[in-house]
Write a structure and sequence with these properties.
The chain is extended, with a radius of gyration of 18 Å. The protein has 5 helices and no strands. By secondary structure, it is mostly helical. The longest helix is centred in the N-terminal third of the chain and has 29 residues. Helix content is about 70%, strand content about 0%. This is TCR/Tet family MFS transporter.
């Protein structure tokens, strides 16, 4: 459910944090991810006592809270000049991206 969150926060931090401080904040993000790796399965196991779908709904709820928080409190990290004007299908096509990488 939350697979893309880590990549998104690293990209966001890379945009908003000065280069001199990135290592510090990337370290904090990695520490929180590590703590989540320990706490998550434990919490999921405890929640599974109430039903096998409860951990799924709990994870979905936490993800929804993250999305709502991000939409309300996190400003756009890129200037309008640096944003993509449009997203074409070729940019979304993973095979086209793979062809670019391999060529």
């Amino acid at each position: 459910i939350t697979g893309g969150s880590i990549s998104i926060i690293f990209a966001y931090f890379a945009d908003i944090i000065p280069k001199e401080q990135r290592t510090k904040y990337f370290g904090w993000v990695s520490a929180v991810v590590g703590a989540g790796t320990i706490i998550g399965p434990t919490l999921g196991g405890l929640l599974a006592k109430f039903g096998h779908s409860v951990p799924l709904y709990f994870g979905a709820f936490i993800t929804l809270l993250n999305v709502l928080y991000g939409m309300k409190y996190m400003p756009e990290s890129l200037d309008k000049n640096n944003r993509l004007k449009e997203i074409t299908f070729v940019r979304l096509n993973p095979f086209a991206q793979l062809a670019n990488i391999l060529s």
